[in-house]
Design brief:
Layout (H helix, E strand, L loop, with lengths): L9 H27 L3 H25 L5 H24 L8 H29 L5 H27 L5
Organism: Rhodococcus antarcticus
Subcellular location: Membrane
Protein name: GtrA family protein
Length: 167
């Protein structure tokens, strides 16, 4: 007597596959909405991304222009990375290209960048007077902390004052 295997229940497999695809699609949509949406969380993720990209641009310009000296390389890197960051924030971070023209965005955002530069310079000057001869690692750490705090304040200033909330 020959036994035959039980028939395969393809209905359950198709249903499981459809449920898996539906779940994957829902996760993809939530991720897409998180990255592309206009919530403050979405904007902050893009803000941090722009910060990383333009910091890398600054470092590249600084290294490439080393021959002109630290001051010139720093100025060129700061100016170029700030202009690129401002435009990326206008178009990508805050979706404000239709609401905010290029020149006012550059002027207002550039003013915020200048305030940040002054704040880090003052923090370093204060640290040097309180802790003379501090190691470079202390100074770099201080600049990172001050820059991080300023970055958070700058995000809310850009979101609320420069680019307005996304509509």
């Amino acid at each position: 007597m020959t036994t035959h295997p039980a028939p395969l229940d393809t209905t359950a497999l198709v249903r499981s596959g459809a449920e898996l695809a539906e779940g994957a699609h829902a996760h993809w949509c939530r991720g897409r909405d998180l990255l592309l949406g206009d919530s403050s969380t979405s904007q902050f993720i893009r803000y941090a991304f722009v910060g990383g990209v333009t910091s890398a641009l600054y470092a590249l310009v600084f290294v490439l222009l080393d021959a002109v000296g630290d001051v010139g390389a720093n100025a060129a890197g700061m100016i170029l990375s700030t202009v690129v960051a401002n435009e990326m924030h206008r178009r990508l971070t805050f979706h404000a290209a239709g609401r905010k023209a290029w020149l006012p965005a550059q002027t207002e955002s550039g003013g915020l960048a200048a305030v940040a530069l002054v704040a880090t310079t003052l923090a370093l000057a204060a640290a040097n007077s309180v802790v003379p001869g501090a190691p470079w690692s202390f100074e770099v750490g201080l600049v990172l902390v001050v820059t991080g705090l300023i970055g958070i304040v700058k995000f809310f200033a850009l979101r609320g004052l420069v680019f307005g909330s996304a509509r």
